[in-house]
Structures are given as structure tokens and as C-alpha cells.
Design goal:
Length: 489
């Protein structure tokens, strides 16, 4: 039995039934990491083999005692390196936090442990989640398991790569402007950005507070629903957490989808236009051809405000980043430059040495946008555009159940191809940022391939309609026929 290719929902059942030994499973995970990590560079911090095997042995004992419980009991999970893990290094892919070990677990990590998951590693990422390729990491770029000369997308590229490489069945990422969906699209995996406030951000090291969400990643829609069941809980430690109970997303997938009349899908015209490669457009249209019919109507819809989404997003994100990253001063924690002088000199040199080029660029641009005389011209205007985008989505969702388009406008590009051209890199986010600005849930599922390069289909739903989004995504996954894909490394 090839246990590493098993979906998480099946793996959990096999573990609890005794058909799979957790010790053997963790041993195989570790062996695969040792075999592939030098090629992929998806992991920043790997827990020691002895610690992992000890945890696996303890869980085996719980099974024998009849004390085993949890939705993810014994299931290996990877966690993006901007999510705090007690006693495990958490770097944000940055020199400035190279040796930082948090004294507490993020809420999502506590929930993983409560359900019996085994955290294997912390995954590589663009520094402070600022990037679309996982090339800005202080620890070097992650490589796409489908083509090692190409990027896996970002900023959650390490999480997507460990899934596509067949190392673990589940991973956590974070999504500020597409950072879960972009790497999911580039690696033929599934990644969900939940409604803003559905998943606690407590313990997520902040980049842009009003935009970012922790999201589940897996190799199929069902496993994403399973992981969302675990992490989507109200948290009083997070002031943006939405109160109230959450649906059982797994249960909803197990029941046939019922809707009055046909399922209405809106193909967003602006997401298929300028900047989208012909190859990507063809794959998306072929996928939609497989989906249409049998009670599913697909119709074009225009959201005219989306042409302003990218500049509005970057003004807001960079402004919030300039504020959030002011805490890295070399005084309280993290890297400190070896230099004598007054506080200002030490502070400036610490940040100059500790932050990478892209992070410094965004801090400077965000500080400018918030400065006296420019606040109204840039930041306030971007917030007004954000409202226009939200209103456009609201109007569209009155007619359509979900909206669709490509996740990424282009195929996975080669490492080094865009890193020296910030504008070209920012343009990669043109399809994904609008969902973050509007706070709506959005998912990427595999739509097809051009050669061995994956293309992702993005599906968006109204706020707090993850149950609907996952049901429809499962229907689309079944019709397209791409799931549980592992790159032939």
C-alpha cells in the first residue's frame, strides 16, 4: 500500500482501524523528505526524526488504549513558516527572524494538535509572504515538483510543493492576495482562501491585517473541506474572528447538491482578458466545457471595477505592511546588526541587513502611501475602490451561485524569469487579489495541463458560503477528473 499517496480522509480512517501504523507512516514521510528535499527546497524547518517517531509511538499507544480521537489523528501536516508553532522555529522566510522560536502556538496549530495531527515541518515561503513565486525567501527558492526549473507560485510555495511532491496530504498556507490559490494553481493542488474572519489569524505573523487569511491546502476538495472543519472555529483572541458555529463541510460534501433550477456560474469577463495567456484561456474554456450542461449554466458576467483591483490591493497591502513590520527593530527579538551607535543607527542597520529587497521595497512604498499629503490621494482612495469591488461582487452574486476564472494568468514561469521585474511579478496577482479585497471565499482546483505545467480554475462564492463553494468545487472536480495528483519526481 502506497500510504503517501492516500488522501487525508482515507488515511485517518486507516490509522484508527489499525490498517496503517503511524510509526511506519512517519518513517516513510521522513524518507521521502530525505530523498526529495534537496531537489525541491520546500522546507525551512524539519522536526527531528526522533521527535516525530516518539510522537507517532505515543499515538500508537493511544490507539491501543482506545483513547485515540480526532479528525486528523496521526495524519502528517505541513505548516507555512509564518504561522507560530511553540518550540519550532518560525522565520517568515526572513533573515530578521532566522532564529526566532515562538513561545506559543497559533490558534490553527492548537486546533490541529487537538484533532491529533502530527506537524512535520515548517514550509518555505516568500519573505513575510511578499511574493508570488517563493523566490524571495532568505532560505532560497522552492522549486516546482512538476518542473524543477520553474517556480511553485507564492507565497505559500513550500506548502504547495510538499503536497505536489507526495510528502504530506495536508498543509496550511496563508492568503493575502492569492498566496494559497497561486501555488495551488501552479502545482495542481487545491487551495482555499476562506471568508475573512472565518479562520483565526491569532498567531499568524502579520503582513496586511485586513486582507490575509490562513487557508487549507490539499490534493483534493474533500481533504480541503476536512482541514477547514478543523481550523474554522471562532477565536476570542482574534478581534476579526466571526462569532458563531460553522457548518460541517465534510457532511455537506457527502450529500447531493440541491438547488432550485440550474446551477448558475458566472465567467468573469475581466478575468479572461488582457494579460491572460492564450494557453491558460484555452485550458479554462476546455474545463468549463466539461462542466456545462446537466443543470449547470455558464454565462459571462462583467465586474468593471476589477480593472482597479491590483493597484488598490498593493496600496492597501504595502501600507499595512509598513506599519506591521515596524516592530522588527533588533531590540525585542530577532536579528540585530552587530554595530555600535545610537538607537536610530542600530535600528536602520538591523532592518537594512535583516530584510530582503522586496520587503524593503514594500515597506518604503507603504510608508510613502501613508505619509502626510499622500494618505488621501493613495490609501483612502484605495479603500474607496475596495468598496466598489465589493459592491460589484454583491451584484453578481444576486444572479450567479459562483463566479469563475483562471487562478493565474500565465503558466508557472522559470526561476529567475521575473524576480528582477517587480511590476511583472505583481501582475501575476491580477486574478486573485479581488477576492481578498472583497473578503469573499475563493478556491483553486486543477483545470488541466499544458504539457506538464498545471493550470488552475478559480471559483468564488459569497461571504460565508464555503459550504456552497466546496460542494460546487467537488462537482467541478468530478467533471474535470483531476484530483490526488503527485508530480512524477
Amino acid at each position: 500500500m502506497d500510504v503517501l499517496s492516500k488522501p487525508a480522509n482515507e488515511l485517518g480512517e486507516l490509522i484508527l482501524s489499525g490498517a496503517i501504523s503511524i510509526v511506519d507512516l512517519i518513517d516513510k514521510v521522513y524518507e521521502r523528505i530525505m530523498k526529495l528535499e534537496s531537489k525541491v527546497n520546500a522546507i525551512i524547518t524539519l522536526r527531528s526524526r526522533s521527535d516525530l517517531l516518539k510522537e507517532a509511538e505515543n499515538k500508537e499507544k493511544e490507539i491501543k488504549r482506545g483513547a485515540a480521537k480526532g479528525l486528523l489523528f496521526g495524519v502528517p501536516v505541513a505548516v507555512k513558516d509564518n504561522i507560530s508553532t511553540k518550540g519550532i522555529r518560525t522565520t517568515c522566510g526572513s533573515k530578521i527572524l532566522e532564529n526566532y522560536v515562538p513561545p506559543y502556538d497559533a490558534t490553527v496549530v492548537k486546533l490541529l494538535k487537538k484533532e491529533g495531527a502530527i506537524i512535520i515541518c515548517k514550509t518555505n515561503m516568500d519573505e513575510f509572504a511578499m511574493g508570488s513565486s517563493t523566490e524571495t525567501s532568505y532560505f532560497g527558492p522552492t522549486r516546482n515538483p512538476w518542473d524543477l526549473e520553474r517556480v511553485p507560485g507564492g507565497s505559500s510555495g513550500g506548502s504547495a510543493a510538499v503536497l505536489a511532491a507526495g510528502i504530506v496530504p495536508l498543509a496550511l498556507g496563508s492568503d493575502t492576495g492569492g498566496s494559497v490559490r497561486c501555488p495551488a494553481a501552479f502545482t495542481a493542488t487545491v487551495g482555499l482562501k476562506p471568508t475573512y474572519g472565518l479562520v483565526s489569524r491569532y498567531g499568524l505573523i502579520a503582513y496586511a491585517n485586513s486582507l490575509e487569511q490562513i487557508g487549507p491546502m490539499a490534493r483534493n476538495v474533500t481533504d480541503v473541506a476536512l482541514l477547514l472543519n478543523v481550523i474554522s472555529k471562532y477565536d476570542e483572541n482574534d478581534g476579526t474572528s466571526i462569532p458563531g458555529s460553522r457548518p460541517d463541510y465534510m457532511y455537506s460534501l457527502s450529500n447531493p447538491y440541491h438547488i432550485k433550477g440550474s446551477l448558475k456560474v458566472g465567467l468573469v469577463v475581466e478575468m479572461m482578458g488582457e494579460g491572460v495567456s492564450d494557453e491558460v484561456r484555452k485550458v479554462i474554456l476546455r474545463a468549463l466545457d466539461k462542466i456545462s450542461g446537466e443543470g449547470i449554466e455558464i454565462e459571462e458576467v462583467s465586474l468593471s471595477s476589477l480593472k482597479y483591483a491590483l493597484p488598490a490591493y498593493y496600496i492597501i497591502a504595502m501600507s499595512e505592511a509598513s506599519s506591521n513590520l515596524a516592530r522588527y527593530d533588533g531590540v525585542r527579538y530577532g536579528f540585530r546588526a552587530k554595530i555600535d551607535g545610537d538607537w536610530n543607527k542600530v535600528y536602520m542597520e538591523t532592518r537594512a541587513q535583516g530584510f530582503g529587497l522586496e520587503v524593503k521595497r514594500r515597506i518604503i512604498m507603504g510608508t510613502f502611501a501613508l505619509s502626510a499629503g499622500y494618505f488621501d490621494q493613495y490609501y483612502l482612495r484605495a479603500l474607496k475602490v475596495r468598496t466598489l469591488i465589493l459592491n460589484d461582487f454583491r451584484r453578481a452574486f444576486k444572479k450567479f451561485n459562483v463566479l469563475v476564472g483562471p487562478t493565474m494568468p500565465i503558466l508557472p514561469f522559470k526561476i529567475g524569469e521575473k524576480i528582477k521585474d517587480p511590476l511583472a511579478m505583481y501582475m501575476c496577482d491580477i486574478e486573485t487579489v479581488s477576492a481578498n479585497l472583497a473578503g469573499i471565499p475563493a478556491i483553486s482546483i486543477p483545470a488541466g495541463f499544458i504539457g506538464n505545467l498545471p493550470v488552475g480554475l478559480q471559483i468564488m462564492a459569497p461571504p460565508l458560503h464555503e459550504e456552497l463553494l466546496l460542494k460546487i468545487s467537488k462537482i467541478f472536480e468530478d467533471k474535470i477528473g483531476l484530483r490526488n495528483l503527485i508530480a512524477p519526481l
